[in-house]
């Protein structure tokens, strides 16, 4: 590889040194807000005070406190990254750019997933080299997770992780021109929990003017907890810790203790008289909103924003196949899963069975999970956006089936990411326990998907017709 001199960029907060390589320039661990320490863990993100001299942007950032997550026989380390890497200053962004010049290139801001409890910019899947190669300035964002990010507490603003992403967008607006980006052509995109955060921003008044386009990959426009559900989680957390459910009381507790109590919060019954559990018991944290994002789009910038949105065809497999539960699931398991997420589980299961007449109980259970977690909320968001945006909505369905775990993993949750980032040929994604399995991926598929994302970010058109609510057809990718 060619050797390059390290570049330095002047930002409003101070100078940052990065690295230059064959795909452009890379600047890491740039703070967009002050370190969330002590009581500030439960406060809105505060402006960073800046620095003197040249800040080292060549090393990765610390990460938000987070637990280790295990997906059985599947290697998910490229998705979750290294876990908790300790350090106070983790409200940071990484910037990958073709060149820090006056180019005014399209900007893409990525928000990672991980169930609102894990993930970071350090995950290998979010390598932005291909975006820089193709003329995009890519910004990846760390935000608060778990108790500091999403537990609803008296004396603290709700949805602090979302406020962090909003603050990062403000940083992009004020700073990205120094990295060769166009602050008037910003696309925010996210996957899973990150996609749900992106959907919430579409309904957030404070987000107006901060981005022009949005991409929602396997998120949900109906994935927020009601205040009643959130308070049930708060009460359980406070009882487990032996403190009052207030920001003042929680501010005295170290992050390690917040991670220790997560098993006590797992599997809480969040069904109420008015709502089922939108996360099917997979996470005790989500956004806390009185109105679901898909039902509140007129409050935010949605009608002015181009939207690309979609899901994978076998989303639920991730939560069953690696654990050995696809084959072992029974009819009772299907009904129990449906009871968490549907008000009338028997009717819904019957509808899934009619749509998939030859499926096993495990496949039905996967379909129930996929529809409840991602499919229904994505459809509702697509419909709502299309109705107010006038031809600005584009929908996809991703169907490439990973051959991991003896060919069973399929077109599951997260499997589109290597194609979006155009890294599907990386050896660490392959092998029987790698996300994409032992087989090579179809030639040209990564190019097609990645190009659609780049073109959408540049022009608002991914290469297929806009979504028509009267004829709800999605563009088929990868099957």
TrEMBL record:
Top class in the EC scheme: hydrolase
Carboxylesterase type B domain location: 6-463
Keyword Hydrolase: yes
EC number: 3.1.1.-
Entry superkingdom: Bacteria
Gene3D superfamilies: alpha/beta hydrolase (3.40.50.1820)
Family: Belongs to the type-B carboxylesterase/lipase family. Belongs to the 'GDXG' lipolytic enzyme family.
Keywords assigned by UniProt, alphabetized: Hydrolase
KW Hydrolase (keyword) present: yes
Natural source organism: Actinophytocola algeriensis
Protein name: Carboxylic ester hydrolase
Pfam families: COesterase
Annotated segments matching region Disordered: 38-72
Molecular function in Gene Ontology: hydrolase activity
């Amino acid at each position: 590889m060619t050797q390059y001199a390290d570049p330095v960029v002047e930002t409003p907060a101070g100078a940052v040194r990065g690295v230059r390589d064959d795909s452009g320039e890379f600047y890491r661990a740039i703070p967009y807000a002050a370190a969330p320490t002590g009581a500030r863990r439960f406060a809105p993100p505060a402006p960073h005070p800046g620095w003197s001299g040249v800040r080292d942007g060549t090393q990765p950032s610390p990460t938000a406190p987070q637990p280790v997550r295990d997906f059985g026989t599947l290697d998910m380390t490229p998705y979750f990254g290294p876990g908790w890497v300790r350090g106070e200053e983790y409200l940071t962004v990484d910037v990958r750019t073709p060149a820090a010049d006056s180019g005014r290139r399209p900007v893409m801001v990525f928000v990672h997933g991980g169930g609102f409890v894990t993930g970071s910019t350090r995950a290998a899947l979010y390598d932005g080299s291909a975006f820089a190669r193709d003329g995009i300035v890519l910004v990846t964002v760390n935000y608060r997770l778990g108790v500091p990010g999403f537990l609803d507490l008296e004396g603290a603003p709700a949805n602090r992780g979302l406020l962090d992403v909003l603050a990062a967008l403000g940083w992009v607006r004020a700073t990205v021109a120094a990295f060769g980006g166009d602050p008037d052509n910003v696309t925010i995109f996210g996957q899973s929990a990150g996609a749900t955060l992106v959907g919430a921003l579409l309904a957030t008044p404070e987000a107006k003017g901060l981005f022009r386009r949005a991409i929602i990959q396997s998120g949900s426009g109906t994935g927020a907890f009601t205040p009643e559900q959130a308070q049930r989680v708060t009460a359980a957390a406070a009882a487990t810790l032996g403190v009052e459910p207030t920001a003042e009381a929680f501010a005295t507790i170290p992050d390690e203790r917040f991670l220790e109590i997560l098993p006590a919060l797992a599997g809480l019954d969040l069904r109420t008289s008015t709502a089922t559990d939108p996360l099917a018991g997979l996470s005790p944290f989500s956004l806390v909103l009185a109105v679901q994002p898909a039902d509140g789009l007129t409050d935010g910038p949605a009608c002015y924003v181009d939207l690309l949105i979609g899901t994978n065809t076998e989303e639920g497999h991730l939560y069953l196949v690696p654990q050995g539960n696809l084959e072992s699931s029974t009819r009772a398991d299907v009904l129990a899963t449906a009871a968490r997420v549907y008000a009338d589980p028997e009717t819904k299961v019957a509808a899934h069975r009619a749509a998939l007449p030859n499926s096993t109980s495990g496949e039905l259970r996967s379909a129930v999970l996929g529809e409840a977690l991602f499919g229904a909320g994505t459809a509702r968001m697509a419909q709502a956006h299309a109705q107010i945006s006038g031809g600005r909505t584009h929908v996809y369905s991703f169907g490439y089936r990973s051959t991991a775990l003896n060919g069973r993993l399929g077109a599951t949750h997260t499997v589109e990411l290597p194609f979006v980032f155009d890294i599907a040929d990386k050896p660490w994604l392959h092998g029987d326990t790698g996300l994409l399995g032992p087989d090579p991926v179809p030639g040209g598929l990564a190019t097609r998907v990645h190009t659609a994302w780049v073109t959408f970010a540049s022009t608002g058109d991914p290469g297929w017709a806009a979504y028509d609510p009267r004829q709800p057809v999605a563009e088929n990718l990868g099957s």
